[in-house]
Design goal:
mainly beta; Immunoglobulin-like; Glucose Permease (Domain IIA); 2 domains; six-stranded antiparallel beta sheet; disordered N terminus; disordered C terminus; binds zinc ion
Length: 309
């Protein structure tokens, strides 16, 4: 077993430096990397819509790293930045649009599809809790922005897909799904601190890792979690195992990455460290393992679409 774990570690790609810049993706669900006209050693204070935004130093320059929500409206957007004692300044950037496609599914089991009123109250509570967890700010000059692939398995469902379940529109896919048998080890995507461990209605056994400056990794449907809140984890470290807990049609990892509170495509932080997807087409069969996503109007809390499904 020890040798097996060792081989799994060896199979993971070589670690990248923690200060690597993510891919610049100027559209909803993407991550924007915006050069900041500031100098100095201290981290500039960047905000958008009142939320603190990540700022990293790369090759002697400062960059704002902005998570763009799937519900963001294409067009002109503004960030505000401030360095040292200088007055705040504004920077405008343009957002393009992106069509992620539609995935239609039919699921027969009505219990899996329609939560009871008591379950709906539970879902609302849990979404508020998880939104609070990922709105924390941990100051670090080296947030974990260069990920390794978290497990041995192919991507089975892509980010951003607009899902239609039994003919009803559901929340868009807030993460990517990776298919692998129950018990397959899961690795931390980057260095960080465990922010939350819990068992939730949709997400099942869930592990949230704080990667610094508002960047979080959320693993869902786990069978086992091997770390505890407050614990520091290293990139590649085994933190648990794949499972089928929560509302899912089979074992898989649903992986959500949140930046400044919003769900963004994990590929922005993976670069070449991701295997080719198995199938992210819109015609996946009903047997494909996936979370049964909440109805669009199920919960009115902000960020309802991003609990991980
Ligand atoms: Zn998913």
């Amino acid at each position: 077993m020890k040798l097996f774990a060792f081989l799994m570690m060896m199979a993971l790609p070589v670690m990248l430096r923690a200060t690597s810049l993510p891919q610049n993706e100027p559209f909803p669900g993407g991550v924007m990397v915006i050069p900041l006209p500031v100098q100095g050693k201290s981290i500039p204070r960047v905000h958008m819509d009142g939320k603190r935004i990540m700022a990293v130093s790369h090759a002697g320059e400062w960059f704002a790293v902005v998570g763009i929500g799937l519900d963001a409206i294409p067009g002109e957007n503004i960030i505000e930045f401030q360095s040292g004692g200088a007055a705040p300044q504004q920077l405008k950037f343009m957002l393009q649009s992106k069509d992620y496609g539609i995935q239609s599914l039919t699921i027969q089991n009505p219990e899996l599809v329609n939560p009871t009123p008591a379950e709906l109250r539970r879902i609302e509570r849990e979404q508020l809790h998880l939104d609070k967890v990922v709105s924390r700010w941990r100051n670090t000059s080296h947030p974990g922005t260069a990920f390794v692939w978290p497990t041995q398995g192919p991507e089975t469902s892509g980010f951003g897909l607009r899902r239609v379940l039994n003919g009803e529109p559901r929340s868009p896919h807030s993460g990517i799904d990776i298919g692998a048998p129950t018990g397959t080890p899961l690795h931390a995507p980057a260095d960080g601190v465990v922010a939350d461990v819990g068992r939730y209605y949709y997400c099942g056994k869930t592990l949230t890792i704080d990667l610094g400056q508002g960047l979080f990794s959320v693993y869902c449907h786990m069978s086992k979690i091997k770390v505890h809140p407050g614990q520091r984890v290293k990139q590649g470290q085994i933190v648990g195992a794949i499972g089928a807990t929560g509302r899912t049609t089979g074992p898989n990892l649903h992986w959500t990455v949140r930046l400044n509170g919003v769900a963004v495509d994990p590929h922005a932080f993976l670069g070449a460290n991701a295997p080719a997807p198995k199938s992210t087409t819109a015609s996946a069969p009903a047997a494909a393992t996936m979370t049964v996503a909440p109805k669009l109007a199920t919960v009115k809390a902000p960020g309802a679409a991003s609990t991980g499904n």
